[in-house]
Amino acid sequence: MGQVNSVLGPLSGDDLGFTLMHEHVMVCASGLIDSYPDLLGPDREERAIATLKSAKAEGIDTIVDATTFDLGRKAQLLHTVAEGSGVNIINVTGWWLDVPRFLHGVGPNQMAKEFIKDLTEGFRGTDIKAGLLKCAADFEGVTPMLEVMARAVARAHKETGVPIMVHSYPTGHVARQQIKIFKEEGVDLTKVKIDHSNDTTDTEYLEWILDQGCYLGLDRYPGRLVSPHMRTVTLKRLIDMGYGDRLCPAHDCICLHIHKEQPDGTIPDEHEFQRHNPEQYLYINRFVIPDLKEMGATDEQVQTLFVDNPKRFLCGE
């Protein structure tokens, strides 16, 4: 039976349940929570536990936390929140977009070794292990340093077999560059998920990604620029095209983030991402699934999206 590392230890595929494949408990600069925690608001652990308890009460069993080192990953916080909420949390290693100048000149083999340690030994100073790999590129495309990280992630995947989630920019067809790198590195594309793919309604481009063998992360709800309804129209269209077994909807929700000072000098109780999505991890349950069923999706198709596909992608089952 396949397993995946959660922050509380190995999980079997049967223990995943209803899974959201791209979320965040906390996003901030690396080390900020240790040096300037009050910027993240009061009662941080308690708020995160309460939010995920609410999600658990409405059927969310597991989230993939896509927070890398440069997005402020705090492994012990994730452990505490998973333990306190009852929601399984699977964290990633790899890299997002913020590569500091001090890493310029570091090579992919060096970074691959570090990522492999995160997967097999644990994040430094802990025994908490990553369960996925992650790399990223955005509107500027795959820059030289982001290529280093992509190749490092590819090489870590080759050594461990662990799947890869990919922050991408569909408006610029950036996955074409990323997939080219993966092919050069010999990555198994059936273990790659191209995320943020519902930031476009261009099903021709999305079909091309799927035809390479990849999964799609349709993981920005409610999102911006593209309306939530049109995101779900695109999701249903891809199901009807026969790709329902490789689609993974989620929110890209952020529970803890910096509370930014207002022009009048006050600090709001909610950060900007929470104001944009007050439902947090439950927007899909409350709005997307009902909308999808109104379009004709079946309970079996919903089960495929949120239970079967994550289990197959994460555990190879």
Structure overview:
By secondary structure, the protein is of the alpha/beta class. It has a single domain (3-315), classed as Alpha-Beta Barrel (TIM Barrel). 41% of the residues lie in helices and 16% in strands. It is built from 11 helices and 11 strands. The strands form 2 sheets. Strands 10-9-8-7-6-5-4-3-11 form a 9-stranded parallel beta sheet. Strand 1 (3-6) and strand 2 form a beta hairpin. Helix 4 (108-120) packs across helix 5 (144-160). The radius of gyration is 18 Å and the shape is globular. The N and C termini lie close together (8 Å).
Brief summary:
The chain has 317 residues and is an alpha/beta fold. It has one domain (3-315): TIM Barrel (Alpha-Beta Barrel). The protein has helices at 32-35, 44-57, 75-85, 108-120, 144-160, 175-185, 203-211, 228-243, 272-276, 283-294, 299-315; strands at residues 3-6, 9-12, 19-26, 62-65, 88-94, 132-136, 164-167, 192-195, 215-218, 247-249, 254-256.
Features:
317 residues; two-stranded antiparallel sheet; alpha/beta; 41% helix; TIM Barrel; 11 helices; 9-stranded parallel beta sheet; globular
Form type: globular
Number of strand segments: 11
At CATH level 3, the topology is TIM Barrel
The total domain count is 1
Spatially, the strands of the biggest sheet line up as 10-9-8-7-6-5-4-3-11
Structural class: alpha/beta
> Which whole number gives the mean pLDDT?
97
Q: Could you state the order of secondary-structure elements as H and E?
A: EEEHHEHEHEHEHEHEHEEHHH
Give the radius of gyration. 18 Å
Largest sheet geometry: 9 strands, parallel
CATH architecture: Alpha-Beta Barrel
Task: Name the CATH homologous superfamily.
Answer: Metal-dependent hydrolases
Q: What's the number of helices? A: 11
Could you name the ranges where pLDDT drops below 50 across 5 or more consecutive residues?
A: none
In the CATH hierarchy, what is the class? Alpha Beta
